[in-house]
Sequence to fold (471 residues):
Amino acid sequence: MPAEEPEFDTGVALYERIRESLGWYPTADVDVLVVGGGIQGLALLNELTDRGYAAALLSNSPLGAGQSFDWPGTLSKGYLDPDPTVRESIEDEWLPFAEDERVPVEGGEWYVCSTDHPYQYLPDQWDEHGYEYDERGIDGLPEVYRDGSIFAKGSGEHVTAIDEYTIDREALVRALADGHEERIVVGDVTDATFTEASATDSAPALDGLTVETHQELTVEFDPDYVVAATGTGTHGFVDSLVGSGEFERAGGDAERVRESLSPVTYRNRLVLAVRGPAADLPAVSAYLPHRGMSVVARRHRYRDENYVTWYVTNESSLESVDPADATDDAKGILDPEKVEVGYNKLFDLAPSVKDRAANGADLEFYAYATLEQCVDDEVTAHHAAPLDGLANVGVALPSGAAGVWATVEETLGYVGDAVDPSGPVEEIPTGGEPPYGRLADDRPGARWLDWKALGVRYPRVQNRPDAVERN
Ligand SMILES: Cc1cc2nc3c(=O)[nH]c(=O)nc-3n(C[C@H](O)[C@H](O)[C@H](O)COP(=O)(O)OP(=O)(O)OC[C@H]3O[C@@H](n4cnc5c(N)ncnc54)[C@H](O)[C@@H]3O)c2cc1C
Fold:
């Protein structure tokens, strides 16, 4: 019986180290290489493998570590912008998937709280498009908002319970990756080669990719087709391919390729998180369309107690981002002034949260900024299409989680037109044991602030001069 390969602490086998030092790089010959380890790339890998494709996935960050872990986890059905296809994608695809894969999904108390404008336009559309709702009137306003300014501006007071869900993002990413670990490589593309345009293809085709893994091993990919599910890193990824002299030498027109990404844009979004024991921070989620705000509550365990985290977003803090500045891992730019304005707005809406924090309740605050990809400036659109000017590369970009399944279907359509499945591969050289990212609010650098520290870090939160003096 052969002796087992001794391994270094990095998990890299000795033969792999030797092979690397000799420059004998292994090749992964696949039908389809998916680039991007967020929920979209993983869902695609799953489907491609199921349909018999020799498929692999390459990501340059731990799985989930982009928008997929910065998103509060809402499976938005589109209550504020009713669209039956979005509702059906949640009800007919996401919820059954979560049930089959045992991914926890939370419903609970969800409301639309709005003045007449824009509420007056919503119930008719909900009726027309099959949305469930229950109008409760002002008496149904959750206690946490009762002393606040929620209806102070504008006329009319509408409180309507809706049927909305959040999904456990960590469990989701693990469920999507389950069984595919050996097909996943985490690393960076360092080189790309192209074949020239031919009689059948009017544009050059991607021939091979060299990848340096995060374990310092090299692997060559020889894919028939590449799908970029690269989220906010899409412009960067496409540029890294077509911006090279190689592409030009193969007769490629980089501008033509870049132009085909024009529907895809990016926005910087501020997320204000608050966490505390469920007794102090109720697990109530709400869309407040007249204020351009939403509060998404997630239940979880923390310090052995039942805790809730609120993720508060505000449309007025959204900013568009130049694609050249978009980050691969969706990290955004945090503007302290916007954080101060945002928390003050939240405390106006829900003064009890501020009062409890100021009176010593165990409430903590954490603000982060993240990028999100958009398609045609819409939150429910998606972009699944081959790139123009690069024969065998396409993109798979949902602008909301609801769009993931439609994006999978459309991507399978254009990939199927180009490549036949040659049977799933069981493993990819250098693949296996992929690292998993952490939720934005759970990452090592995330600093949760108690009430006093919040005032020190963001002095204009409730104009707290005592807090400023502490600095
Ligand atoms: C704050 C926020 C709130 C949101 N709210 C909602 C909501 O309420 N409802 C809803 O449905 N959706 C919402 N979304 C959108 C949802 O989160 C995204 O649609 C979804 O997570 C996108 O997944 P993805 O896999 O396309 O992208 P990502 O999760 O960003 O994954 C992209 C992956 O590609 C990798 N990558 C990038 N460049 C490269 C490269 N060059 N080489 C290799 N790998 C690369 C990245 O490392 C990353 O792993 C929200 C998003 C955010 C940020």
